[in-house]
Amino acid sequence: MIEVVLNDRLGKKVRVKCNDDDTIGDLKKLVAAQTGTRADKIRIEKWYNIYKDHITLKDYEIHDGMGLELYYN
After folding, report:
1. For residues 42 and 5, is the Cβ–Cβ distance under 8 A?
2. Residue 18 · residue 4 · CB < 8 Å
3. Average of pLDDT values for 33-38?
4. For residue 15, what are the β-bridge partners?
5. Which of these, 3, 21, 28, 60, is most buried using a 10 Å CB contact count?
6. CB of 37 within 8 A of CB of 20?
7. For 8-35, how does the pLDDT look when each residue is reduced to its tens digit (9 = 90+)?
């Protein structure tokens, strides 16, 4: 299990525990459950790289404690 921190830069920081073989789409569903927004309205980025839903966290080399940027479409 790894913990990922997502910051939306509007004052909300979300900490999500997930597996490193989960996809970005799974991570979006976990974030949506915590924030109350729909998963299809969430965009996850890091330094202007938009993460695709079907690729795993391990493939993107997302590790424990890593911070990502959370945007709302």
Report:
1. no
2. yes
3. 90
4. 5
5. 28
6. no
7. 888 889 999 988 888 999 999 999 998 8
Give the C-alpha separation, 21 to 37, whole Å.
Answer: 23
Taking alpha carbons only, the member of 46, 68, 58 closest to residue 19 is 58
- Measured between alpha carbons, how far is 15 from 64 in angstroms, rounded to an integer? 11
Which residue, chain included where needed, has tokens 């949506």?
A: 32
Q: How far apart are CA 10 and CA 17, in angstroms?
A: 21
Query: Does residue 67 sit in helix, strand or coil?
Result: strand
17-19-21-22 Cα dihedral, nearest 10 degrees? -40
Q: What is the predicted pLDDT for the residue at 5?
A: 93
Provide DSSP, 23-40. Answer: BHHHHHHHHHHHH-S-GG
